[in-house]
Write a structure and sequence with these properties.
about 400 residues, alpha/beta, 7-stranded mixed β-sheet, 13 strands
Amino acid sequence: MINGQMYAYGAESSKIREIFSYACARKEEIGAENVFDFSLGNPSIPAPEEVRASIERSLAEVSAAELHGYTPAPGLPAAREAVAASLNRRFGTAYTAADVFMTVGAAASVSCTLHAVACPGDEVIVIAPYFPEYRVWIEVAGATCVEVPADPETFQVDPAAVEAAITSRTAAVIVDSPNNPTGAVYTRETIERLAAVLERANAAREAELGRPQPIVLISDEPYREITYGAEVPWVPSIYEHTVVCYSYSKSLSLPGERVGWILVPQVGEGARRVMAAVAGAARALGFVCAPALFQRVVADCVDVPSDVAAYARNRELLSSALSAYGYEYVEPDGAFYLWVRALEPDAEAFCERARAYELLPVPSNSFGVEGWVRVGYCVAPEVIERSLPAWRKLAEDYGVCGC
């Protein structure tokens, strides 16, 4: 027998991964230099030299049994302590290793958290447009994904719309800032207004049930370090019932190494139960023991900065050209995606037309909205430069080129 739900997820595939696979095949056919793949959030910027130094130090100084063996399920104490200490330095907090659970990347962070806080029949609110895998992870946890549109002008969270969507079954809300796919950074005011909405809902729920049952705010933050001058508020300082999910895929350019963490601030009995449930979810899902070598890298490189300047140059190169060609887009304050309005209402049709020019953005349909495309500019700058004539021809094809 085959699990029908799992078969369906595998058969439909991720649109992002589907386009990436097409790009790989197309590069084999016509040459990589002729294909303009903007599908995957795969950093082209190399990992910092500190990562190499950490790996070489571990290879020289750590025994093979420790280097390649299992770690404690929550992670190496040194890695957890390093993460907590780094957060304390940055945000004036007082976290300890007990607040941190090391994970197998961002997917494990969010998936374990959802399984920890949501029960079958519950609802989880996402802000559309949103990362498509959220729906999969929510549904596998037995919950229902409830889409709430972002503000259509700013792509900030619309707290009033979230409030209208909250029901007695709402277990969690996911926010992703800097946002994938729009690049929007949620302002402190936005998060404070959202927190006020959740506090009102929590108070009403406690009055009805006679016991606290707070809505958890899941702050998914793999792009936190990649911003262009905008402040990314520290969400747990604004809303107590926050769980932070993090990955080093983007900040240290380590997407294939699958290492990250979950932070559950231990502010009370409820938080301790959440952390125990996170540990249980990791066990049940088979996500125990993040890669041992890269936990050591985290301990050594926890404060190493991202090369944001390189992404900023790519952003300027791509956005200035597309603007000149007549495209509309959202100015990204963070991450490394340009959210571009498709040149026709059907984003899927627009992307099919773009393929004729070997341009491979991702249509917005899988992100929960219509009429846009995501263009990942985490590629090498020469890919953007070579793609510009194709973007111009595509605009001319639609009769909108302003140059």
